[in-house]
Amino acid sequence: MSKPTVVLADDHQIVREGLRTLLEAESDFSIVGEESDGLKVADLVERLSPDVLLLDLMMPGLNGLEITRQVAKRSPKTRVIILSMHSNEAYVMEALRNGAVGYLLKDASTSEVLEAIRQVTTLPGRYFLGRPFSERAIEEYAQRAQAAPLDLYEALTSREREVMQLGVEGYSNTEIAARLGISARTAETHRSNLMRKLGVQTQTDLIRYALRRGLLPLE
Questions:
Q1: Nearest CA-CA partner of 78 in 6, 21, 143
Q2: Could you give phi then psi for residue 90, rounded to 5 degrees?
Q3: 5-147 CATH, one of 2.60.40.10, 3.40.50.300, 1.25.40.10, 3.40.50.2300
Q4: pLDDT tens, 176-216?
Q5: How far apart are CA 163 and CA 173, in angstroms?
């Protein structure tokens, strides 16, 4: 039986190195790729088709929640486990709704990380929530995530979400165009369309919305 394959996605090299060291110390995992840029994660996962993606919630370029959504569509066999500093259950519900099967805090123990990967790769349909989330609450979280009403963000296209993420990170239309391989005029059009859909008028309003929606870290 082949080893489960894993891709690591985190913008901090020291975190990726720590995870790689942890997993390579075990005989039953194979690290097949790493990425630090949120915009490149889904492409890498689609190309490598790993069994597991260990994904930072707050990635630059594209946040982990949107990456999870894209991976669920482009590489449905890949099981996404979110790594986060945030214990707010709203993040957990959003992660599960977007297709994640696991959610761990970044201070999780070594045994907890290994257990999460082993469970989601050996038990089909299994979710794994690390501490402080109750094991008994997993089904409730999953059901609430699926039943949660859609908000205006759901009306945005994948490209509009990418433009929005880069925009609230401070990139200009020209810089966004360069990152996404589109024209500055197209980037401007996407920005105007997404702001109209979200009902916001200014860049400040857009940033506030992104903070409320959990697309940017609060600190």
A1: 6
A2: -65, -35
A3: 3.40.50.2300
A4: 999 999 999 999 999 999 999 999 999 999 999 988 887 87
A5: 9
